[in-house]
Amino acid sequence: MPEAETREQNPPPTQKKPSFPILGGLRGYLEAYKRERDLPVTYERLLGFSEAIPLTDDDGRATLWDTVIYEGNEMRLLNEALKEVYAVLKVDGDMSVVQHLYVDRIDFCTFGNSTPFRVRIVNAYNDNQDYFYVKRADASRVYGLELEHLLSPNRLNFLTHGTTLIEEHIPGIPGDIFIARWLSRPDISGIRVAKELVKFNERCFVRLLGDMRSYNFVFVVTPDFESFQIRIRAMDFDQQSYNGRRNFYRPQFFKENAPLALFCAKLLHRETAMQYQREEQTLMLQRADIAAARLGRLLDEMENDPISPPDKVHFLRESLAQHYGRPEYLQCESMGELIRYNLDSIRREVGRPARPEYAPHPHAR
């Protein structure tokens, strides 16, 4: 985040990305790590609603969601089936601990690529609410979720079932709301916000998670004995390793994030920003080392999965070769290879020994 660039300062608006099917290699990976499960509900089944009512917020303003209604018998069946899905997601399918839960509402959103269903689960004893999402399975999104689980400080629960993807809710304050209502609060430490922004920016860039505009990530604010601790979490993984523009993977360059970028520039010296960047690089490598075998297998599958057209891969590899000063990038033919080289590049920068499990493969050229 500390460096200034003149090219592609503001990436253009996102074009609709095609959805990619989960192929056999990725499916095998998901089965091996218990992500692929037999579930009683599919995305296609939820499309069979009979009525949709626009959903408004607490102030009566329209949202992007509609509450959907099903025929009486189907709603009763869905209530039990969705509770079972929630049990698999949260407690490995133990239905004995979810009998007091019920499905309060099912919402449907036609905005964006994934057009998800959002299921609200309520505890009958204390009215506590939780959510999960049912979406069409998209391979690039699944790679994004798994890379977040392995390389970020956040663990993620998600499941696949054929062409259906189940995701847990990621709680937090949406970035655009944080900018409008929280950024100027005197009890929020500006330095802590800026530090986390640098770290988040670096995570997205190294693992090639794109389109992190302010409404695609959340701020998790935790009270501490000194002010608040801040963490930023991505909540939309649709644009994992698809785009060919380098700055598309750098949140600092989106106009929606301009208040945050200016906030960082005002509070952080360049040397301090570089320190925080290096801290996050080191932490990413530590996480990668802990999950080396699993990460290596995931990148193996990603290398053989056509989740981005060759022209985008080639355009991005040239940009990354220039950024890291490594012509070896020009041999890469897939997004999975580019992520391997990104990890290898920061490993060289921090002076850590190579791990063969997910190191770049030697090219037969």
Care to describe what's here?
This protein has 365 residues and is an alpha+beta fold. The protein folds into two domains: 24-168, no CATH class; 173-350, Phosphatidylinositol 3-kinase Catalytic Subunit, Chain A, Domain 5 (Orthogonal Bundle), CATH 1.10.1070. It is built from eleven helices and ten strands. It has helices at 24-32, 43-46, 72-91, 139-151, 175-181, 190-207, 258-267, 270-290, 292-303, 310-324, 335-350, and strands spanning 51-56, 62-69, 101-109, 117-123, 129-136, 158-161, 164-168, 173-174, 217-223, 228-234. The strands form two sheets. Strands 1-2-3-4-5-7-6 form a seven-stranded antiparallel beta sheet. The protein has a three-stranded antiparallel beta sheet with strand order 8-9-10. A hairpin with a 4-residue loop joins strand 9 (217-223) and strand 10. Helix 6 packs across helix 7 and helix 8 packs across helix 11. The longest helix is centred in the C-terminal third of the chain and has 21 residues, at 270-290. Mean pLDDT is 92; it is low at 2-9.
